[in-house]
Amino acid sequence: MGKYIIRRLLTAIPTLLVISFVVFAILDLAPNDPTGNLPLTIPAEVRAKIRESLGFGEPFHIRYVKWMQQFFVNEPLNIIEEVFDVKIGDSENRLRVRSWATRSPVIDLIIERTPQTLWVVGLSYLLAILIALPIGVISAVKQYSIFDQVGTFVSMVGFSVPTFFTGLVAIVIFSVYLGWFPSVYNTTHKVTDWSSFIVQVKQSIMPVTVLAFYSAAQLARFTRSSMLNNLNLDYVRTARSKGLMERVVIIGHVLRNSLIPVATLVAIGIPQIFAGAIITEQIFRVNGLGALLIIAIQGADIPLVQSLTFIYALLIVGFNILVDVIYGVLDPRIHYD
Q: What is the pTM of this model?
């Protein structure tokens, strides 16, 4: 397993290099001017100097190499220095990828917004898994029962209705009419005691539930389908003929084999839900990575869009490797060494 993971990591390097080049090239060649949002009273020669200070006077390949150096070398060094409180080289003069809009380092902006996204999106995905797996298993075991029919109907609705609609419905019902939860997520709120923790939970309920409902609907349907594909196979009948309890057969045999494709969906869905949270964060005003990406796109902040897009790609590649490792753990027939 260890050798396989090393091989997959080495294979991922050229993949990420190609992705980074495509992302940088497409966004860099887009007709966006970093001085486009500046006042019209600024003289042309000043605009030219600003473009030159941002590296626009250099050839494309030089700018790409510098971006790669800043993203893969300089920024990790800055993170190591910040986390471990050490000094590596000349950190004060180290080039960093900077936002055109704020002139702040892009990675600092991303790190600042990440806790909000992890709290809302991460909690919603965890809740979705805890809800979807039992519903999918029970629906498959009790096929065509009332529980199965209700679960299938709710899953169909949850998967079909987009999050911007369910989010607006939740705001209208629970914020406007009932007044139970705030309609706007206060990102500046800090948890210092029990009462502030309750406020944090109340403002998180609606965005977390909206995202969890959409993700759980998809996972529950997939889990049910995977369970049904395994319930009538020969190894299940053999296990039952040996006199094993039905619970042991379902959990120990059917569920383990059924979780192999489900694990793929869960792992690959983690980067996707970060991108999908863009809509939900806009509805509930969560100042997370999704909202940051929208602001960057609207303001033509190319370095910030490049960095966020590449981080999403990095997550997808990383979790694909994780899926392959999970396959080896769940399926004893798979041997990587």
A: 0.79
